């Protein structure tokens, strides 16, 4: 591995770590701070949905325009935030199989929902897992599509490095400058 390839690998690993930190902040610490999380005086309510597509159907049948707008952003947001996860997994893992990567995405999403349920952070929802897996699958397929078009893994790695270089400042801004109290 030459110096440029090593530098790309280090950068991509760093971008992936920043992305993971952003996910932790968004999914676990956007409604409660790390200090509040373990405060024994914190009051919280648990909301858990284990019926597939129940929340999505409620969103669709929601009466007001505000509820539909919120629902749309929730559905699209759950898909969007896991697209990079699928791309990075496909790029960084040795086993580039779709099923293995999708299983990893499922397990991470399940872990997040279990943590949300245990600590009373937001809503633990099976629909979030489904939508996160859909987003991850889009990322995996996007990686495979790039590989099909460019026909060289080094070119794909370079393209994703460039996209990460563009997206990293946005992630860092969201991570350190914006309070994500959703």
Describe this structure in words.
- The chain has helices spanning 3-27, 34-37, 54-61, 65-80, 83-92, 98-119, 126-150, 153-176; strands spanning 47-49, 123-125.
- With 182 residues, the chain is mainly alpha-helical.
- The protein has a two-stranded parallel sheet.
- The chain starts with a helix and ends in a 6-residue tail after the last helix.
Short description:
This protein is mainly alpha-helical and 182 residues long.
Task: Pick out its properties.
182 residues, mainly alpha
β-strand percent reads: under 5%
Oligomer: single chain
Task: Determine the N-to-C terminus distance.
Answer: 43 Å
What's the total helix number?
Answer: 8
Shape: globular
> What are the segments in which pLDDT stays under 50 over at least 5 consecutive residues?
none
Compile the SSE list and pairings.
Layout: H1 3-27, H2 34-37, E1 47-49, H3 54-61, H4 65-80, H5 83-92, H6 98-119, E2 123-125, H7 126-150, H8 153-176
Parallel strand pairs: 1-2
Helix pairs in contact: 1-5, 1-8, 3-4, 4-7, 5-6, 5-7, 6-7
């Amino acid at each position: 591995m030459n110096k440029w390839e090593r530098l790309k690998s280090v950068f991509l690993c760093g971008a992936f770590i920043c992305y993971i930190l952003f996910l932790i902040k968004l999914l676990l610490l956007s409604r409660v701070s790390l200090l509040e999380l373990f405060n024994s005086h914190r009051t919280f309510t648990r909301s858990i949905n284990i019926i597939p597509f129940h929340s999505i159907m409620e969103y669709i049948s929601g009466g007001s325009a505000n509820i539909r707008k919120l629902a749309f952003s929730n559905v699209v947001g759950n898909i969007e935030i896991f697209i990079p996860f699928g791309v990075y997994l496909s790029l960084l893992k040795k086993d580039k199989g779709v099923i293995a990567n999708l299983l990893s995405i499922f397990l991470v999403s399940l872990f997040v929902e279990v943590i949300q349920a245990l600590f009373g952070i937001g809503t633990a929802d099976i629909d979030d897992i489904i939508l996160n897996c859909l987003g991850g699958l889009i990322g995996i397929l996007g990686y495979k599509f790039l590989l099909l078009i460019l026909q060289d893994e080094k070119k794909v790695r370079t393209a994703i490095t460039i996209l990460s270089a563009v997206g990293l400042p946005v992630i860092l801004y969201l991570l350190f400058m914006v309070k994500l109290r959703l």
